[in-house]
């Protein structure tokens, strides 16, 4: 099949490399407002370059990957749907929930599949955790802990435009909690602090946060995030039930140092970048998209899924600023 990629920044170039190595993909068509980025990627992956999204959609593509700036996501998703071309779009669907809801309304009933990029759904550990929960191996759940700690904060320009740590970082934890447990979040309480880069505080954001989520069956989920984790990129999950407890991310590249006498775990070099931690997951995610394009599977992460994680992020943001519990129904407006 022939896949178009819109946006050749860090993640777009990474997706180009991944797609070029998939057996199902015969050719790539690339476009980016910065022509040099598209040209460099095209030379590396023997791809075709066009000068606009319209030209890309007219180039006979079977599916498109949207890796452009967030502001461009709604228009590019809609353009793909109007052309009848399956769409893979990096999260979020849009910069605000209102825009995201508008996109959902616009594409409902189109019959064109749309997959949103929540790569943890394709990580082997998280897949195994979900399977264990679905099989009842843990019994009734009572506690979930989900962690995302970045080794260093993103640039000031990114922070200023990201919508905040809950919307651009914690949202991965929110999505994977829903996916692994199969439950919905009903209420949140969030706190945050700033002990690192001043520009994060200046942007009205926090660099370290904690959130307690109440799920619709009474399970308690605790989410921990930080922009400053000196030992590396730390992504983990614990799922505790009345029968058993399991963990995702307890492997030799875990960026955590044990001080217990005689303990040598973890023994590997710590993860220091999200692409390192989730290389295999990204490949599985885009392989899934080629199956969506081929019509052999439904979208494994819909716009509806992405918006549910977004409502949780909005609730946590409001809770942080107003120092109070917030229900999902409050931010949803119903």
From TrEMBL:
<dbReference type="GO" id="GO:0000166">
    <property type="term" value="F:nucleotide binding"/>
</dbReference>
<dbReference type="Pfam" id="PF22725">
    <property type="entry name" value="GFO_IDH_MocA_C3"/>
</dbReference>
<comment type="similarity">
    <text>Belongs to the Gfo/Idh/MocA family.</text>
</comment>
<feature type="domain" description="Gfo/Idh/MocA-like oxidoreductase N-terminal">
    <location>
        <begin position="1"/>
        <end position="118"/>
    </location>
</feature>
<dbReference type="Pfam" id="PF01408">
    <property type="entry name" value="GFO_IDH_MocA"/>
</dbReference>
<dbReference type="GO" id="GO:0016491">
    <property type="term" value="F:oxidoreductase activity"/>
</dbReference>
<dbReference type="InterPro" id="IPR055170">
    <property type="entry name" value="GFO_IDH_MocA-like_dom"/>
</dbReference>
<dbReference type="InterPro" id="IPR000683">
    <property type="entry name" value="Gfo/Idh/MocA-like_OxRdtase_N"/>
</dbReference>
<feature type="domain" description="GFO/IDH/MocA-like oxidoreductase">
    <location>
        <begin position="126"/>
        <end position="243"/>
    </location>
</feature>
<dbReference type="InterPro" id="IPR036291">
    <property type="entry name" value="NAD(P)-bd_dom_sf"/>
</dbReference>
<protein>
    <submittedName>
        <fullName>Gfo/Idh/MocA family oxidoreductase</fullName>
    </submittedName>
</protein>
<keyword id="KW-0560">Oxidoreductase</keyword>
């Amino acid at each position: 099949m022939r896949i178009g990629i819109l946006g050749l920044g860090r993640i777009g170039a990474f997706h180009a490399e991944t797609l070029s190595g998939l057996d199902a993909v015969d050719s790539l068509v690339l476009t980016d407002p910065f022509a040099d980025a598209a040209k460099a990627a095209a030379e590396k992956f023997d791809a075709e370059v066009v000068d606009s999204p319209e030209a890309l959609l007219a180039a006979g593509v079977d599916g498109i990957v949207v890796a452009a700036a967030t502001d461009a996501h709604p228009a590019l998703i809609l353009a793909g749907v109007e052309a009848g071309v399956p769409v893979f779009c990096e999260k979020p669907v849009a910069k605000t929930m209102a825009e995201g809801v508008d996109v959902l309304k616009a594409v409902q009933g189109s019959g064109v599949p749309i997959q949103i990029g929540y790569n943890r759904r394709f990580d082997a550990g998280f897949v195994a955790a979900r399977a264990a929960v679905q099989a009842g191996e843990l019994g009734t759940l009572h506690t979930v802990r989900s962690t995302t700690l970045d080794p260093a904060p993103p640039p000031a320009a990114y922070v200023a435009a990201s919508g905040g740590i809950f919307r651009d970082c914690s949202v991965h934890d929110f999505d994977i909690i829903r996916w692994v447990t199969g439950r919905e979040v009903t209420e949140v309480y969030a706190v945050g602090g700033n002990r690192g880069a001043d520009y994060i505080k200046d942007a009205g954001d926090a660099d370290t946060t904690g959130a307690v989520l109440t799920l619709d069956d009474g399970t308690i989920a605790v989410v921990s995030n930080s922009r400053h984790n000196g030992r590396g990129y730390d992504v983990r999950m614990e799922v505790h039930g009345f029968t058993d407890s399991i963990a995702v991310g307890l492997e030799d590249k875990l960026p955590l140092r044990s001080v217990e006498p005689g303990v040598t775990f973890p023994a590997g070099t710590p993860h220091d970048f999200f692409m390192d931690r989730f290389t295999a997951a990204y490949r599985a995610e885009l392989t899934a998209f080629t199956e969506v394009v081929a019509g052999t599977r439904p979208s494994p992460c819909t716009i509806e899924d992405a918006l549910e994680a977004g409502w949780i992020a909005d609730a946590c943001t409001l809770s942080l600023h107003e120092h109070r519990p917030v229900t999902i129904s409050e931010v949803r407006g119903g």
